[in-house]
């Protein structure tokens, strides 16, 4: 099953419809799961400015990849330090 992508505007409008109709009716009309609609509602409530940011820009993805790589290298370095300490005794 292919994962569908929704725009930020679609998500915001769907959440706004909840004010006028029950969430289950809105979900049925839009053809989405009501649990997903509830998730969107909570995301918008928690952080209205940055809700539905998605994956982000290419620069943000690169920063995320580099942070993960740094964490991996740091972990490897720490393991090697411990190994050297153990074998030097």
Q: How are the SSEs placed, and which strands pair?
A:
Blueprint: H1 8-17, H2 23-30, H3 34-46, H4 58-87
Taking Cα atoms only, what radius of gyration do you get, to the nearest Å? 22 Å
How many angstroms does the end-to-end distance come to?
56 Å
- The arrangement of helices and strands along the chain is HHHH
Count of DSSP-assigned helices:
4
Brief summary:
The chain is an all-alpha fold and 89 residues long.
Description:
The chain folds into two domains: 54 residues; 35 residues. Helix content is 69%, strand content 0%. The model has no long low-confidence stretch (mean pLDDT 87).
Which key features would you list for this structure?
89 residues, mainly alpha
């Amino acid at each position: 099953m292919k994962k569908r992508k929704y725009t930020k505007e679609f998500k915001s409008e769907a959440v706004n419809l909840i004010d006028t109709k029950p969430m289950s009716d809105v979900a049925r009309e839009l053809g989405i799961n009501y649990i997903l609609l509830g998730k969107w509602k909570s995301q918008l409530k928690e952080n209205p400015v940055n809700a539905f940011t998605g994956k982000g820009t290419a620069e943000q993805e690169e920063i995320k990849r580099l942070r993960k790589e740094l964490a991996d290298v740091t972990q490897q370095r720490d393991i090697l330090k411990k190994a050297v300490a153990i074998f030097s005794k």
